[in-house]
Amino acid sequence: MTPWRVYAPSTPPPLYAKALGERVQWVGPFEPHQLAQHATMLREVVAVAGMGDAKVPASLMDALPALKLVSIMGVGYDGVDIPAALARGVQVSHTPDVLNDDVADLAFALMLAVTRRVVLADRMVRAGEWGQRPTPTGVRLTGQRLGVLGMGRIGQAIARRAAAFDMPVTYTARAPKPALPYAYASNAVALARAVDVLVVITPGGTETRHLINAEVLQALGPQGVLINVARGSVVDEAALLEALQQGVIAGAGLDVYENEPYPLAGLTMLDNVVLTPHVGSATPTTRQAMAELAARNLVSFLSGNGLLTPVPECAATRA
Ligand code: NAP
Fold first, then answer.
1. Chain segment 104-146, per-residue pLDDT in tens
2. Is 153 in the pocket of ligand 1 (CB under 6 A)?
3. 166 close to ligand 1 (CB < 6 Angstrom)
4. Does domain 4-97+284-318 have CATH number 3.40.50.720?
5. Beta carbons of 4 and 24 less than 8 angstroms apart
6. Per the CB 3.0–4.6 Å rule, which of 120, 150, 165, 260 could disulfide with 202?
7. Which atom of ligand 1 is nearest the CA belonging to 255?
């Protein structure tokens, strides 16, 4: 069988490439200004395959006239221009659910690291300063009030873990979920006012841009902790930096940033912040499951059998 031509917006994720094997012939990545010079090769590309941070703008789709599918190895797909894909009849798939537990675990790792000052304590031991000065004291996480901004698949996995920490949960989302045993707040400010620790776990994109702003941070208050495991775009990073510097909130744990891989410079100078490099789903087990699901979507679709996990916008067009 002739392999399908698949465009990679960045170096193909090795696990994804392995899962697809000989069935695909990879093309790219090319810089935007190089697309025209590779037009002949790009004319036969039927799919784009990338990680959750892949950028697939309309201009790239225009360079791929035979494009049928964008297959994302990740649940977030805010880098894909969905209206442009829908307008061209291009389907988009992602890998929901298989990463819920890892991202929820990381949210708790960050909560504990910030409240118990784990990174600071680790640094002290390594520097040989134990016994030289007082050890850092933290704040008890157990019993604190947890706020979840975005009560979807991952938000619910986070809320379930909260029970083990005796943390009452309040959340907000686009719509209340009456079947869930948690309190609902009507918006981000009301949510921040009602909790001690606020975890952000909505999708990125224009709809959620800067949902966490100076007003929300003010409402979270001087004992409050912000955790962002969603997308950098959901938090106004400049407002967050100022809030952390001024003591408007107590601390933050961040896995994602507005301009990855470059956190706002001032953040790295602060002791009340724990920073991880977008590793929410980064365990071998989960990355393997994501690669397999992404590959199964691509193979199924290009073989004429449809998508297993289309993004909601594409599922809606098929219904
Ligand atoms: P999901 O099941 O679609 O849940 C998203 C939740 O966000 C839903 O509850 C939704 O509300 C809510 N929401 C959407 N727009 C909102 C708005 N404007 N205001 C308030 N709430 C809003 O998605 P998921 O699978 O849990 O994943 C969530 C996101 O996590 C992904 O999109 C991705 O960006 C991020 N993520 C990050 C990592 C990482 O490595 N750090 C890994 C995986 C995922 P409704 O329920 O009312 O629709």
1. 999 999 999 999 999 999 999 999 999 999 999 999 999 999 9
2. yes
3. no
4. yes
5. yes
6. 150
7. 41
